[in-house]
Amino acid sequence: MQLRINMESMQADGSVRPSAGTLSLFNPPSGPWIRVDTFGYAGYGISPHYDSLLAKLVVHSRTRHFADVIQRAYRALCQTRIQGVQTNIDFLKNLLRRPELVENQVYSCFIDDQIAQLLNPDDPAHPQFFFADSASAEPGQPDTVQQIEGLVAVTSPLGGLVVEMSIAVDNAVHKGQQIALLEAMKMQHPVLASGDGVIHTVAISQDMTVRAGQPLVYLEPLALDTGPARELTDVDLDSIRPDLAEVPARHALGLDASRQPVVARRHAKGKRTARENIADLCDADTFIEYGALTLAAQRDRYSEQELAASTPADGLVAGMATINGSHFPPSGHAAWCWPTTIPCSPALRAS
Asked: Could you tell me if residue 238 is inside a domain?
């Protein structure tokens, strides 16, 4: 059985919030039939750039009984001591104590239905197979927030990297308006204003790493009109962020519509393109392409932009699709062709 120990706190609605900080204490379990894969150690500062996985606890049982490996895994978790960041260890302990799991009677929505009990660390109380140290710091406790008279501090809900500042000093903001965008454990989290007011002080900057509970801005509470100021929160739902717009643009470089001169030369010779052959061979809208963003390994000679335009998919079109699916019953038994790899001609690739 493998248990993934994550640096995260689970909310009452089942959502997960990543945790960050510095490991003040890190004592994983040990012993026969126990393996721990990790890079954690006391004093290790967690980077917000990676996901929340801290350790993989792998437990083996010498018997074939599922209940035995669950009991061994539960005891290993009760030997584990991690402080400095919040983890999902209590959640895993509660899960392993559920009789439904022992009897293998769980179902797809089991955790969603039992989330309240699974998040309660004291019901039932878990044994601790280690000597408690009262001097150790509690995990994941935020720093004390400096209070400024007349101002309200908007604090970071978690540790992470500030990737976007949405406001500046003297900006009017409404309750629920985005103040900043944080990135932690490969996820982005908006920080919203706690009430109406005017930004008095900005305590952070873009590309800065912040701790959970750290003040981001100080807000001077004011009652604002709901007219023109509210328009600041309007968002164009059809807009695409520049970094995301690059993805469909890169895919389009390998399509015939973006390579008209090359297509025209192929047609002038009485030949067809690879895309045209795929369109006629496969059922409509079933071709799923793989490797479309691959480039030729010539970065020492050309820039990435030049390679993206001249060698899309490195001269190959590869993917999977159905062929003659209409001749098969709608039971999913259509003939899937994998892989469909059609090399482009040297002339097409070079151009």
From this structure: no
Task: Give the integer Cα–Cα distance in Å for 314 and 351.
Answer: 12
Phi and psi at residue 173, to the nearest 5°: -130, 150
Is 91 found in the same domain as 8? yes
Question: In sequence order, what are the beta bridge partners of 288?
Answer: 320
- Pairing, β 160-165 against β 152-155: unpaired
Q: Which two tokens stand for residue 281?
A: 């061979």
**Distance spanning both ends of the chain, measured CA to CA:** 53
Task: Kindly give the residue spans of alpha helices, DSSP state H, lying in 229-338.
Answer: 242-252, 260-268, 274-281, 304-310
pLDDT digits (tens, 9 = 90+) for 8-46: 888 888 788 888 778 999 999 999 999 999 999 999 988
Number of structural domains found in the chain: 3
229-264, pLDDT tens digit by residue? 445 556 678 888 777 888 899 999 999 999 899 999
DSSP state at residue 46? P
